[in-house]
């Protein structure tokens, strides 16, 4: 389920699945990086005007992470409803830095960051496989969404 409310924050609500958890019943830490990516994927149609599938398959742009980090403050468990909050905190030439928060009923549980780079996936292009400038239309839409550390 995708919901978007406050300006500059994209929110994705998820239910923790059985397969997200380790034998102790706690969400295994790499799963949060997938949750961050799911939030980023759903941010595209919610705020940028087109789907992430169009970005990759039609526009032939990739968006690999070149950096990611997370801090884990409280555990999440099977059956929990959690909400991933995504903000854009920096726009570079080709890179976009995201900040994430994961919230549960008891408040904030995880914080994270990632830097993703717009990459040319068009095999016919001499720039194939390299970082490329964020397209102007995309930059404008991200700026309209809101960029910065404060909400
Ligand atoms: C991504 C690369 C091809 C970029 O290499 P290149 O040499 O072309 O670019 P630069 O080195 O000049 O950097 C461009 C840009 O990124 C910033 N940057 C680079 N490293 C870091 C870092 N560690 N921390 C912060 N920022 C960094 C740099 O400052 C520049 O910023 P500007 O804004 O000034 O332009 C190459 O780096 C590469 O191939 N890396 C490996 C990527 C990888 O394997 N990541 C693992 C996860 S894969 C992934 O997450 C992924 C997700 C998707 O959704 C995809 C979708 C579609 C296709 C692929 C996907 C994908 O792989």
UniProtKB/TrEMBL annotation:
Its EC number is 3.1.2.28. One of its GO terms (molecular function) is 1,4-dihydroxy-2-naphthoyl-CoA thioesterase activity. InterPro entries: 4-hydroxybenzoyl-CoA_TE, HotDog_dom_sf. Coiled coil: none annotated. The keyword Hydrolase applies. Keywords: Hydrolase. The keyword Hydrolase applies. It is an enzyme of class 3 (hydrolase). This is 1,4-dihydroxy-2-naphthoyl-CoA hydrolase. It comes from Enhygromyxa salina.
